[in-house]
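Sample pair:
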Amino acid sequence: MNVLCQAIGFLGAIGFALGAIGCSSARSVDSRSANERSPFLIVLGIAQDGGVPQAGSFDEPGRHDASKRKMVSCLGLVDLQTGKHWLFDATPDFPAQLTLLHDAGAKGKAPDGIFLTHAHIGHYTGLMYLGHEAMGTQGVKVYAAPRMRSFLESNGPWDQLVRYHNMKIESLTPGEPVRISEELRVTPFPVPHRQEYSEVLGFRIDGPGRSVLFIPDIDSWDDLDATGVRIEDLIAGVDVAYLDGTFFGEGEIPGRSMKGIPHPMISSSLERFKHLPPSERAKVRFIHLNHTNPVLDPASDAARQVSRAGMNVAQEGEVISLDTAEGSARANAR
């Protein structure tokens, strides 16, 4: 717990000037001008680990309507000045997500680095595509906390990726920023969530003038409170906050109480955040959505509740500029 407090405290201390708090610059990749050279984040997936539709769910609309298919939760970071690009989590949708990154302006076949949140299946298994059976990469930097590193180095087939030098694991220490370019840095911090095989991390991504928070998995905001840290304070320190929205509310999974599922319900997050100023609520974008989550349908009552509350549901292809020059632009998801 002390590590968490130190990490979050450090996050607050290292924040860049945030001008125009709460006004996030989110646009479709298609709307980017060729003259824009600022670094940006792009949402590469919004679904929970199993994707949408999920395996074995044969009646879901996504089986027959490609527009309703969603890739697993993932962010991409692109530095247009250098063409370098990074991933936040390596998902089962790794190939398609690399294509989306390439189309957004990333250069080179392999990412320049991959930051892993934890060892649940939707967040690291995409590393398999680095292997000699697929891309056969050399020395891709994979950033991992100590237990996550040990897990990869001690278990097949991941240890083979290390032995064959397909990936090079870089250690992460909570609270210590990693500078990946002149203008970009990433700071990991611990998150209370199931830790069967590894720690669980969230990330703060800082650009030349704007910052983004990424917490795709957490047990509850109350558990974070118990460490002496409030999610509201983390939101206040950034321009955009991608937060765990796995489930919307009670009754979503027939015959099962949602109270025993370790994720904050979107409905409870709406209630908790309702007293925040509109500019703060506008920063929130729910991500990591289970295939049962009604907010996946923008015409649903659940999606309308999120909108009426002044918050957002993350969209695939959504772009967040990290440049101060666009800091006053209004959020405009595709």
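Residues 2-14 form the longest helix (13 residues).
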